[in-house]
Amino acid sequence: MSPSLAEALSRIVGARWVRYRPAELATYRADGLPTHESTPGLVVLPGNREEVAAVLRLLHLLQVPFVARGAGTGLSGGALAGADAVLVAVTRMARILAIHPERRRAVVEPGVVNARLSEATLPFGLHYLPDPSSQSACTIGGNVAENAGGPHCLKYGVTTNHVVALEVVLADGSMLQLGSPQGEAWGPDLVGLFVGSEGMFGIATEITVRLEPLPQAIRTIYADFMSLRSASEAVSAIIASGVVPAALEMMDQSCLKAVEASIFATGGPTDAAAVLLVELDGPPDVVPAESCLVETVLRQLGARALRSATTAAERARLWQGRKKAFGALGRIAPDLAVQDAVVPRSALPDILDRVGEIRDRHRLEISNVFHAGDGNLHPCISFDRRDAALVARVQTASREIMEACLAAGGSITGEHGVGSDKMTYMPLAFDPDTLGAMRAVRRAFDPDERANPNKVFPLHACREWRRGKGTAA
Amino acid sequence: MSQAILARLGALLGDACVDQDPKGLPRAIPESEDALALVCRTAHEEHWKIRVEGRGTWLTPDAPADLALSTRGLDRIVSVSPADLVATVQAGAPYEAVRRQLAEPSMWLALDPPGRPERTIGSVLATATAGPLRHAFGPVRDHVLGCTTATGDGRLVKSGGRVVKNVAGYDLTKLQVGGFAGFGIITQVHLRLRSIPRADTTFIAHGSRDALASAGRVVTAAQIGAAAVELFSPALAADSEWVLGVRLVGSEATVEAESRRLERETTVTWQQLPVERSGSFWSLAARATLGGPVTIRLGALADGLDESLDLVAELLDEGLISAGAGVGTIRWTGEASLDRLRTLRRQAAGREIPMTLERAPWTLRRSLGHFGAYREGVGQLVGRLRESFDPGQCLSVALEGAEGE
Asked: Among B167, B256, B331, B389, which would you mutate to test the A interface (most chain A Cβ atoms within 10 Å of its Cβ)?
């Protein structure tokens, strides 16, 4: 990329906030997805909204593509930039601009780390609910781009349910205000459209979110099962009972063994086929009654043993295995591909059988740790990227898992996004007219398609592209 | 022209799917999504303007057009999955019929929209008109997992799906819910359901507006697990005073515990409605919303509810008002002049409160628009979005005000 561009960007943000040396750029060549790498041409770190707008105006003038990036914890290769693109890292924009306890709202810059917001609102008895597993590192801006979820999204919804207003800078450097403090839209729901657009509509520079009161009472139940099928059948039975748990998570035996062999061990039952973690929250008079109901359902469905916790320390112990599962799985092999797909809850028993069959046929190590209540699977495939044959088997197995989930009426991604990882699956999930409509929406925001190019859509699959009407980027 | 269009529609759909509205406008009532898309494609090719209708119970069917296109022929419940708590429903299905059919396998669509029971699901979604249950279960968009939309030029676009979590591609459903058919005609939806609560009880309190609004805020602050906390004006509640309705749902134990807390935490005098009166209390309030030709929605914050209600009373009247005491959303129905509505919208905007024109005669819709003037830059963006979904501008929908504001 030309030195003159680096110079021009330096004039906007200051020379220390432009990275162009190969060693500096290497830091940004991957996100949380181990199978994809791409080194950006330049990295720029604006410090405020005005600098973001000035950077994007300059790139618009020069017709240079760009990619926005938060903490780089994404799991779909969504924040990768090619050599012809500028990576716009928002990590310097990490101020919590306002907390309005009486309104239960907070206004943040996009680089604010998810967990930091809840820490800041804790003194007011409030927290920000979406809690992706990477919440100690991931940014709210990245959460907006990916419409991130997390264990507690079963009851409270994902990022889109908690963002009420956005200030965004479009690819031409223009700035828009979307949404309102209350959440009612000024016109069509453009906030809802923007959230989850994977950085392809522009960059959010200010985000207004809902805060919720801390639960008055919480109980966590840990149930182990000798059958994976029974555990997954219990998931639907709990929801059918009318109780909506705050979280309903599952770990299979492979995952349990990995956790117990790691420093995160909690004395979990490694002989169990699966463990369900059910968290209930609400008023103090209500939680015990709902717990009784859930425990009855769990026993009826064959739970071997139940443990429950009410104090923060006890609950943290029950949660530890689940929260540290990905770290523990990282010990099995040099690389870990964390897949993300969704099926209707009722399809969980069959789909887990199918994943097991795919695992055996391709001789792979697959562990399952996931948001069972949402039907949001995370088959984790352990592998070594230096083994080309193994990588090919991982890719084939991943595709077969996606196809199985789609055949069961599900989706190719529940919370990680499409990014560069799942573009090839999009035509399996959507017809050409729908893909064409999505692309047209993207072009309404960014007519030149310079924001996060070459992600999400395989252009050849869009109807308009087929007809030759669209201008392929 | 009308006769030619009528004949063309008859040839496309069959005579059984075509009639004329009371003013003689040709009306297509397709019975499949493909047939509806075909009507749009033909209208696009022929440069006909389309007036989109459900059953004509909410928005006055008076938009100028060459033909009316009703979704009421698409009235099937396509599938219901009790285990997944998901239903797929065609857009023309009447809300109340859907509710009743879902109740058989003990499922509940936790939406209580204003209007008549035969109002279509598509109408509720396209106008995003949630009722008091939005307090616990969110706005309309939170109940919609995905939808199919026919674009103005006759493409069928599918977004979302039948799963509760899904980030594959852009969330086009968000554009359609509350889009007033400006971005296409919703033909089918995937709805998120809940189990019918085992217990469902309603408490009401009478008193001054400010005292009841204050009690509503206490209910929210105390985190009482209420499904609805709604303030009704005397005219809407057919009462001599303002009425605060609190609906508690859940297991018997939950409702009992929360009932006790409601009485303990607040200082107003509650009256628990018998089961048979509870349902009629909420449904009468929903129907009373049709007691005037104009309905507006204000996105106020709960902590500014009093001031916002003062503003409405000052510029319009204190007629038919329903307001979420915990959420802040205000719905007003009555008669109002263009000038008054325009002034209210401008003053509300100054307080960061959006005003949506939910229903009104075409003359008002055309002048004011459902949304009015957009913020800087947003109008061009919305224009480009509309162009992509309706390149021939066939859909006769007034999202923006024609006269500007």
From this structure: B167
Mean pLDDT of the residues in chain B: 95
The neighbour count for residue A181, using CB atoms within 10 Å, is 21
Residues of chain B with C-beta less than 8 angstroms from the C-beta of A162 = none
pLDDT at B405 over 90: no
Query: Which residues in chain A are closer than 8 Å to B153, comparing Cβ atoms?
Result: none
Instruction: Calculate helix-pair angle for A312-323, A253-260, nearest 10 degrees.
Output: 110
Beta-strand ranges (E) seen in B10-113 are 18-20, 26-28, 50-53, 67-70, 77-81, 86-90, 107-108
* Residues contacting residue B129 through CB under 8 Å, at least 6 positions apart: B58, B113, B114, B115, B140, B297, B358
Give Dmax (Cα) for chain A: 69
For B138, nearest residue in chain A (alpha carbons): A161
Q: What letters, b where the CB count within 10 A reaches 16 and e where it falls short, cover A310-337?
A: eeeeebebbbebbbbbbebbbebeebbb
In sequence order, the β-bridge partners of residue B229 are: B246
B165 to A283: CB separation less than 8 angstroms, yes or no? no
Q: What is the dihedral of CA A420, A58, A8, A27, to 10 degrees?
A: -20
Question: How far apart are the CA of A438 and the nearest CA of chain B, in angstroms?
Answer: 6
| Cβ distance of A188 and B377 shorter than 8 Å | no
Q: What mean pLDDT, rounded, does chain A reach?
A: 94
What are the beta bridge partners of residue B108?
A: B194
Region B243-268: mean pLDDT is: 94
Q: What angle do CA A220, A221, A226 make, to 5 degrees?
A: 150
Q: Of B170, B214, B297, B331, which to mutate for an interface test with A (greatest number of A Cβ within 10 Å)?
A: B170
**Contacts with A291 from chain B: Cβ below 8 Å:** none
A438 neighbourhood in chain B, CB within 8 Å? 169-170, 172
Average pLDDT value for residue range B230-259: 94
> Residue B361, SS3?
coil
Report the pLDDT value the prediction gives residue A412, as an integer from 0 to 100: 97
The SS3 call for residue A222 is strand
The pTM of the full predicted model, rounded to 2 decimals, is 0.96
Task: Identify any residues that bridge with B19 across adjacent strands, giving them in sequence order.
Answer: B27
> Which residue is closest to B156 within chain A, CA to CA?
A433
Q: What angle do CA A434, A209, A119 make, to 5 degrees?
A: 130
CB A426, CB A418: distance < 8 Å: yes
DSSP state of A91: T
Strands annotated E in A195-265: 203-210, 212-213, 217-225, 247-252
Residue B59 has pLDDT above 80, yes or no: yes
A177/B164 CB distance under 8 A:
no
DSSP helix/strand/coil, A357: helix
For residues A392 and A396, what is the distance between their CA atoms, to the nearest angstrom? 6
| pLDDT (tens digit per residue) in B346-370 | 999 999 999 999 999 999 999 999 9
Q: What is the pLDDT of residue B253?
A: 85
**Whether the Cβ atoms of residue B285 and residue B237 lie closer than 8 Å to each other:** yes
Task: Find the angle CA(B176)-CA(B181)-CA(B185) to the nearest 5 degrees.
Answer: 85
Encode pLDDT of B27-43 as tens digits: 999 999 999 999 999 99
Please list, residue by residue across A278-308, b when 16 or more beta carbons sit within 10 angstroms of its beta carbon and e when fewer do. bbbbbbebbbebbbebbbebbeebebbebeb
Please state, in angstroms and rounded to a whole number, the distance separating the CA atoms of residues B52 and B182.
10
Two tokens, residue B181: 């058919």
Structure tokens that stand for A380 in this block: 């984790």
The four Cα atoms A47, A48, A54, A60 give a dihedral, to 10 degrees, of 90
- Chain B residues with beta carbon closer than 8 angstroms to that of A216: 223
